[in-house]
Design brief:
Layout lengths: L2 H19 L7 H17 L4 H19 L4 H19 L5 H27 L8 H16 L1 H4 L8 H24 L8
Helix pairs in contact: 1-2, 1-4, 2-3, 3-4, 3-5, 4-5, 5-6, 6-8
Length: 192
């Protein structure tokens, strides 16, 4: 790694540390830009380590959500915890793939639960009924996220047989939910 890469990686870690301890949980557009730059710098540092890369992708996904919507407390908690895992992965002198895999797996489960919770809040209209068009869009996005699980843990044998089965079941459930949502949508000309 070149000195400039080392410097940018160190600066990226310092940015994450600052955000982790920041008492202000509102992310301004400038802070989002700085975090995105930090994630990009760390992406090349963690090249070849799939589990820290998975943590980075989840953090990036959270940041992308914050660009569209105000951060909820649960989402900010997740982002701060995820960034702490990234900092720990950087600081570990010896890479422990099993430990990194366990950390990424726990974070991914929380990430999916958070996405489902956010989806439920987003899908309600002013009168608290479900907006079916938004439901379909959100389910499709969740299917894409869930479909990336094997790619996030792309190394051979990164997923245990049980995790692979859980991912397949999750994809099946999301696929069924998408089919049900399509069946209940009004004809295209009358959709919102």
């Amino acid at each position: 790694m070149s000195p400039s890469n080392t410097s940018s990686t160190h600066e990226a870690i310092q940015q994450l540390r600052a955000e982790i301890i920041a008492p202000d949980w509102q992310l301004s557009p400038q802070r989002i830009v700085r975090l995105k730059a930090a994630f990009a710098a760390l992406n090349s540092y963690f090249h070849g380590r799939p589990h820290p890369l998975a943590l980075l992708r989840m953090a990036s996904s959270a940041i992308n959500h914050f660009e569209k919507d105000d951060p909820q407390a649960d989402a900010m908690d997740f982002l701060k915890e995820d960034m702490a895992h990234i900092v720990n992965a950087y600081e570990d002198d010896e890479h422990d793939p099993a430990k990194e895999k366990e950390t990424a797996s726990r974070a991914y489960k929380r990430f999916l639960r958070l996405n489902i919770s956010l989806a439920q809040d987003e899908l309600k209209t002013a009168d608290q009924t479900i907006n079916t068009t938004k439901l379909l869009e959100r389910l499709t996005a969740l299917a894409e996220d869930a479909g990336q699980l094997p790619a996030l843990l792309e190394k051979k044998d990164a997923l245990t047989a049980e995790q692979g089965q859980q991912a397949a079941v999750l994809l099946g459930k999301i696929s069924a939910a998408i089919n049900i949502a399509w069946a209940h949508l009004p004809p295209p000309q009358s959709r919102e």
